[in-house]
Amino acid sequence: MNTYTHIPVLAEPFIDGWLTDPDGYYVDATFGRGGHSRMLLQRLSEKGRLLGLDRDPQAVEVGRVLAQEDARFTMLHTDFSGMESALEGIGWSKVQGIGFDLGVSSPQMDQAERGFSFQREGPLDMRMNPDEGQPVSERLKSVTERDLVQVIRGFGDERFAGRMARAILKAVHAGEMETTKQLENVCFHSVPPKARHGSTHPATRTFQALRIWVNDEYGQIDSAVTSAMQHLAVGGHLSVISFHSGEDRRIRDLVEAAVHPCQCPREFPICVCGKTPTMKWVQKKPVRASEDELDENTRSRSAMLRIAQRLP
Questions:
Q1: Which residues are CB-neighbours of 194 under 8 A, at least 6 positions away?
Q2: 60-73 pLDDT per residue, tens
Q3: Quick check: is 287 in a domain?
Q4: Which of 55, 70, 175, 254 has the smallest CB count inside 10 Å?
Q5: Which domain range does residue 154 map to?
Protein backbone atom coordinates (compact mmCIF):
# COMPACT_ATOMS: atom_id res chain seq x y z
CA MET A 1 0.00 0.00 0.00
CA ASN A 2 1.29 3.45 -0.87
CA THR A 3 1.73 5.85 2.01
CA TYR A 4 1.69 9.47 0.90
CA THR A 5 1.28 12.49 3.12
CA HIS A 6 -2.00 14.17 2.35
CA ILE A 7 -3.23 17.29 4.14
CA PRO A 8 -7.01 17.69 3.71
CA VAL A 9 -7.94 21.23 2.67
CA LEU A 10 -10.48 23.44 4.46
CA ALA A 11 -10.74 20.64 6.99
CA GLU A 12 -12.58 22.35 9.86
CA PRO A 13 -15.19 24.28 7.85
CA PHE A 14 -15.73 21.24 5.62
CA ILE A 15 -16.39 18.93 8.58
CA ASP A 16 -18.53 21.57 10.32
CA GLY A 17 -20.64 21.86 7.19
CA TRP A 18 -20.82 18.11 6.64
CA LEU A 19 -21.77 17.03 10.18
CA THR A 20 -25.34 17.64 11.33
CA ASP A 21 -25.90 14.77 13.81
CA PRO A 22 -23.22 12.68 15.55
CA ASP A 23 -25.58 9.68 15.40
CA GLY A 24 -26.23 10.11 11.68
CA TYR A 25 -25.21 8.33 8.48
CA TYR A 26 -22.76 10.05 6.13
CA VAL A 27 -21.09 9.63 2.74
CA ASP A 28 -17.56 10.66 1.81
CA ALA A 29 -18.04 10.61 -1.96
CA THR A 30 -14.34 11.28 -2.66
CA PHE A 31 -12.41 9.33 -0.02
CA GLY A 32 -8.92 10.01 -1.42
CA ARG A 33 -6.53 9.13 1.39
CA GLY A 34 -9.19 9.53 4.06
CA GLY A 35 -8.16 12.76 5.74
CA HIS A 36 -11.68 14.16 5.92
CA SER A 37 -13.19 10.75 6.75
CA ARG A 38 -10.92 10.26 9.73
CA MET A 39 -11.80 13.69 11.06
CA LEU A 40 -15.51 13.01 10.71
CA LEU A 41 -15.19 9.63 12.44
CA GLN A 42 -13.61 11.39 15.41
CA ARG A 43 -16.79 13.41 15.81
CA LEU A 44 -19.32 10.62 15.20
CA SER A 45 -20.90 8.68 18.06
CA GLU A 46 -20.86 4.89 18.26
CA LYS A 47 -24.20 4.96 16.43
CA GLY A 48 -22.88 7.07 13.57
CA ARG A 49 -21.84 5.49 10.27
CA LEU A 50 -19.72 6.62 7.32
CA LEU A 51 -19.55 5.27 3.77
CA GLY A 52 -16.46 6.04 1.68
CA LEU A 53 -16.45 5.97 -2.14
CA ASP A 54 -13.55 6.25 -4.58
CA ARG A 55 -12.69 4.99 -8.06
CA ASP A 56 -8.93 5.05 -7.49
CA PRO A 57 -7.78 1.52 -6.49
CA GLN A 58 -5.03 2.95 -4.29
CA ALA A 59 -7.53 5.06 -2.37
CA VAL A 60 -9.80 2.03 -1.96
CA GLU A 61 -6.91 0.06 -0.51
CA VAL A 62 -6.36 2.78 2.10
CA GLY A 63 -10.08 2.87 2.84
CA ARG A 64 -10.32 -0.87 3.37
CA VAL A 65 -7.57 -0.65 5.99
CA LEU A 66 -9.57 2.05 7.78
CA ALA A 67 -12.69 -0.14 7.60
CA GLN A 68 -10.80 -2.88 9.42
CA GLU A 69 -9.79 -0.40 12.11
CA ASP A 70 -13.21 1.21 12.59
CA ALA A 71 -16.45 -0.78 12.29
CA ARG A 72 -18.44 2.41 11.72
CA PHE A 73 -16.77 2.87 8.34
CA THR A 74 -17.47 1.07 5.04
CA MET A 75 -15.39 1.47 1.86
CA LEU A 76 -16.68 0.81 -1.66
CA HIS A 77 -14.85 0.92 -5.00
CA THR A 78 -16.98 3.11 -7.27
CA ASP A 79 -16.94 6.57 -8.77
CA PHE A 80 -19.19 9.05 -7.04
CA SER A 81 -21.77 8.92 -9.84
CA GLY A 82 -22.43 5.39 -8.55
CA MET A 83 -23.58 6.75 -5.19
CA GLU A 84 -27.22 5.76 -5.63
CA SER A 85 -26.34 2.12 -6.31
CA ALA A 86 -23.87 2.16 -3.44
CA LEU A 87 -26.48 3.44 -0.99
CA GLU A 88 -29.03 0.91 -2.20
CA GLY A 89 -26.45 -1.85 -1.82
CA ILE A 90 -25.88 -1.16 1.87
CA GLY A 91 -29.53 -0.38 2.59
CA TRP A 92 -29.33 3.37 3.25
CA SER A 93 -32.20 5.40 1.81
CA LYS A 94 -31.44 8.78 3.39
CA VAL A 95 -28.30 10.19 4.99
CA GLN A 96 -27.51 13.18 7.18
CA GLY A 97 -24.55 14.47 5.19
CA ILE A 98 -22.66 13.99 1.92
CA GLY A 99 -19.23 15.45 1.29
CA PHE A 100 -17.28 15.96 -1.96
CA ASP A 101 -13.64 17.01 -2.22
CA LEU A 102 -13.37 17.34 -5.99
CA GLY A 103 -10.43 17.21 -8.36
CA VAL A 104 -7.15 15.34 -8.17
CA SER A 105 -5.61 14.46 -4.80
CA SER A 106 -2.09 15.31 -3.67
CA PRO A 107 -0.95 11.65 -3.73
CA GLN A 108 -2.17 11.31 -7.32
CA MET A 109 -0.30 14.47 -8.31
CA ASP A 110 2.85 13.30 -6.56
CA GLN A 111 3.05 9.94 -8.36
CA ALA A 112 4.82 10.45 -11.68
CA GLU A 113 3.44 7.19 -13.08
CA ARG A 114 -0.13 8.50 -12.82
CA GLY A 115 0.60 11.28 -15.33
CA PHE A 116 -1.32 14.09 -13.65
CA SER A 117 1.50 16.58 -13.19
CA PHE A 118 3.64 18.37 -15.76
CA GLN A 119 6.26 18.83 -13.06
CA ARG A 120 7.13 15.13 -13.13
CA GLU A 121 8.14 12.93 -16.06
CA GLY A 122 5.71 10.06 -16.52
CA PRO A 123 3.32 8.39 -18.95
CA LEU A 124 0.53 10.67 -20.18
CA ASP A 125 -2.27 8.84 -18.39
CA MET A 126 -4.37 10.98 -15.97
CA ARG A 127 -7.03 8.32 -15.31
CA MET A 128 -8.49 8.34 -11.81
CA ASN A 129 -8.98 4.60 -12.21
CA PRO A 130 -6.04 3.17 -14.19
CA ASP A 131 -8.02 -0.02 -14.78
CA GLU A 132 -10.76 1.68 -16.81
CA GLY A 133 -10.88 3.63 -20.03
CA GLN A 134 -8.00 4.97 -22.11
CA PRO A 135 -5.11 7.16 -20.97
CA VAL A 136 -4.89 10.67 -22.38
CA SER A 137 -2.13 9.59 -24.79
CA GLU A 138 -4.55 7.14 -26.46
CA ARG A 139 -7.59 9.40 -26.38
CA LEU A 140 -5.64 12.09 -28.22
CA LYS A 141 -5.06 9.74 -31.15
CA SER A 142 -8.73 9.74 -32.10
CA VAL A 143 -9.92 13.26 -31.23
CA THR A 144 -10.54 15.91 -33.89
CA GLU A 145 -8.92 19.31 -33.69
CA ARG A 146 -12.30 20.97 -33.32
CA ASP A 147 -13.28 18.75 -30.39
CA LEU A 148 -9.90 19.18 -28.73
CA VAL A 149 -10.23 22.97 -28.93
CA GLN A 150 -13.60 22.68 -27.21
CA VAL A 151 -12.11 20.47 -24.49
CA ILE A 152 -9.19 22.78 -23.77
CA ARG A 153 -11.28 25.95 -23.90
CA GLY A 154 -14.34 24.57 -22.13
CA PHE A 155 -12.64 22.61 -19.36
CA GLY A 156 -9.52 24.72 -18.97
CA ASP A 157 -10.59 28.28 -19.83
CA GLU A 158 -7.47 28.38 -21.98
CA ARG A 159 -7.41 31.46 -24.23
CA PHE A 160 -4.85 29.86 -26.57
CA ALA A 161 -6.93 26.70 -26.99
CA GLY A 162 -6.68 26.71 -30.78
CA ARG A 163 -2.91 26.99 -30.80
CA MET A 164 -2.64 24.32 -28.08
CA ALA A 165 -4.89 21.86 -29.93
CA ARG A 166 -3.07 22.22 -33.24
CA ALA A 167 0.35 21.79 -31.65
CA ILE A 168 -0.75 18.81 -29.55
CA LEU A 169 -2.23 16.94 -32.51
CA LYS A 170 0.86 17.69 -34.61
CA ALA A 171 2.95 16.04 -31.88
CA VAL A 172 0.49 13.13 -31.64
CA HIS A 173 0.77 12.45 -35.38
CA ALA A 174 4.57 12.57 -35.07
CA GLY A 175 4.46 9.98 -32.27
CA GLU A 176 5.72 12.53 -29.75
CA MET A 177 2.85 12.72 -27.27
CA GLU A 178 3.36 9.85 -24.83
CA THR A 179 4.71 11.55 -21.69
CA THR A 180 3.80 14.44 -19.39
CA LYS A 181 6.98 16.32 -20.26
CA GLN A 182 6.26 16.06 -23.99
CA LEU A 183 2.85 17.62 -23.42
CA GLU A 184 4.31 20.25 -21.11
CA ASN A 185 6.90 21.21 -23.72
CA VAL A 186 4.29 21.50 -26.48
CA CYS A 187 2.05 23.66 -24.26
CA PHE A 188 4.93 25.93 -23.30
CA HIS A 189 5.94 26.58 -26.89
CA SER A 190 2.34 26.94 -28.13
CA VAL A 191 1.72 30.25 -26.38
CA PRO A 192 3.26 33.56 -27.45
CA PRO A 193 6.68 34.24 -25.87
CA LYS A 194 5.26 37.02 -23.69
CA ALA A 195 2.79 34.55 -22.11
CA ARG A 196 5.31 31.85 -21.23
CA HIS A 197 6.64 33.19 -17.95
CA GLY A 198 3.63 34.47 -16.03
CA SER A 199 2.41 33.38 -12.61
CA THR A 200 0.66 30.35 -14.15
CA HIS A 201 2.60 27.82 -16.21
CA PRO A 202 1.30 27.63 -19.83
CA ALA A 203 0.53 23.92 -19.40
CA THR A 204 -1.63 24.29 -16.28
CA ARG A 205 -5.02 24.81 -17.89
CA THR A 206 -4.49 22.25 -20.64
CA PHE A 207 -3.46 19.56 -18.15
CA GLN A 208 -6.58 20.39 -16.11
CA ALA A 209 -8.80 20.24 -19.19
CA LEU A 210 -7.46 16.89 -20.40
CA ARG A 211 -7.80 15.39 -16.92
CA ILE A 212 -11.44 16.50 -16.69
CA TRP A 213 -12.06 15.16 -20.20
CA VAL A 214 -10.51 11.72 -19.79
CA ASN A 215 -12.29 11.14 -16.46
CA ASP A 216 -15.65 12.67 -17.49
CA GLU A 217 -15.46 14.72 -14.30
CA TYR A 218 -18.23 17.16 -15.18
CA GLY A 219 -20.61 14.38 -16.15
CA GLN A 220 -19.75 12.67 -12.87
CA ILE A 221 -20.39 15.86 -10.91
CA ASP A 222 -23.77 16.47 -12.55
CA SER A 223 -24.96 12.94 -11.82
CA ALA A 224 -23.50 12.65 -8.32
CA VAL A 225 -24.53 16.03 -6.90
CA THR A 226 -28.07 15.63 -8.24
CA SER A 227 -28.28 12.17 -6.65
CA ALA A 228 -26.73 13.44 -3.42
CA MET A 229 -29.39 16.12 -2.94
CA GLN A 230 -32.11 13.51 -3.45
CA HIS A 231 -30.62 11.18 -0.84
CA LEU A 232 -30.21 13.73 1.93
CA ALA A 233 -32.58 13.46 4.86
CA VAL A 234 -34.45 16.63 5.83
CA GLY A 235 -31.90 18.91 7.48
CA GLY A 236 -28.99 16.99 5.96
CA HIS A 237 -26.05 18.90 4.49
CA LEU A 238 -24.24 18.80 1.18
CA SER A 239 -20.65 19.99 1.63
CA VAL A 240 -18.54 20.45 -1.52
CA ILE A 241 -14.95 21.58 -2.06
CA SER A 242 -14.00 22.55 -5.62
CA PHE A 243 -10.70 23.80 -6.98
CA HIS A 244 -11.36 25.86 -10.08
CA SER A 245 -14.05 28.12 -11.44
CA GLY A 246 -15.57 25.52 -13.77
CA GLU A 247 -16.18 23.06 -10.95
CA ASP A 248 -17.42 25.76 -8.60
CA ARG A 249 -19.88 27.17 -11.15
CA ARG A 250 -21.23 23.69 -11.75
CA ILE A 251 -21.83 23.09 -8.05
CA ARG A 252 -23.40 26.52 -7.63
CA ASP A 253 -25.76 26.04 -10.57
CA LEU A 254 -26.82 22.52 -9.58
CA VAL A 255 -27.70 23.62 -6.05
CA GLU A 256 -29.21 26.90 -7.21
CA ALA A 257 -31.63 24.94 -9.41
CA ALA A 258 -32.89 23.17 -6.26
CA VAL A 259 -32.93 26.39 -4.21
CA HIS A 260 -34.86 28.36 -6.88
CA PRO A 261 -36.69 25.76 -9.01
CA CYS A 262 -39.56 28.02 -10.12
CA GLN A 263 -39.76 28.20 -13.91
CA CYS A 264 -42.47 30.83 -14.16
CA PRO A 265 -41.78 33.95 -16.26
CA ARG A 266 -40.37 36.84 -14.23
CA GLU A 267 -43.43 38.99 -14.92
CA PHE A 268 -45.76 36.52 -13.14
CA PRO A 269 -46.78 37.95 -9.72
CA ILE A 270 -46.98 34.47 -8.15
CA CYS A 271 -45.60 31.02 -8.91
CA VAL A 272 -47.98 28.80 -10.87
CA CYS A 273 -45.54 26.07 -11.96
CA GLY A 274 -45.77 24.35 -8.57
CA LYS A 275 -42.03 23.74 -8.23
CA THR A 276 -40.92 24.31 -4.64
CA PRO A 277 -37.39 24.53 -3.22
CA THR A 278 -35.80 21.31 -1.98
CA MET A 279 -32.52 22.90 -0.82
CA LYS A 280 -31.35 26.11 0.83
CA TRP A 281 -27.90 27.63 1.01
CA VAL A 282 -26.00 27.39 4.27
CA GLN A 283 -22.85 28.82 2.69
CA LYS A 284 -23.43 30.21 -0.79
CA LYS A 285 -20.37 32.45 -0.94
CA PRO A 286 -17.40 30.07 -1.16
CA VAL A 287 -15.27 29.64 1.96
CA ARG A 288 -11.57 30.07 1.17
CA ALA A 289 -8.46 28.92 3.02
CA SER A 290 -7.15 31.08 5.84
CA GLU A 291 -3.70 32.64 5.76
CA ASP A 292 -2.53 30.04 8.31
CA GLU A 293 -3.72 27.18 6.10
CA LEU A 294 -2.14 28.72 3.03
CA ASP A 295 1.18 28.88 4.88
CA GLU A 296 0.86 25.21 5.82
CA ASN A 297 -0.54 23.86 2.55
CA THR A 298 -0.10 25.89 -0.65
CA ARG A 299 -2.42 23.52 -2.54
CA SER A 300 -5.34 24.95 -0.57
CA ARG A 301 -5.03 28.34 -2.29
CA SER A 302 -7.62 27.51 -4.96
CA ALA A 303 -10.02 25.54 -2.74
CA MET A 304 -13.63 26.78 -2.49
CA LEU A 305 -16.27 25.35 -0.14
CA ARG A 306 -20.03 25.64 -0.56
CA ILE A 307 -22.64 24.12 1.79
CA ALA A 308 -26.37 23.53 1.31
CA GLN A 309 -29.15 21.95 3.38
CA ARG A 310 -32.06 19.70 2.44
CA LEU A 311 -35.51 21.17 3.02
CA PRO A 312 -38.71 19.23 3.92
A1: none
A2: 999 999 999 999 99
A3: yes
A4: 175
A5: 129-214
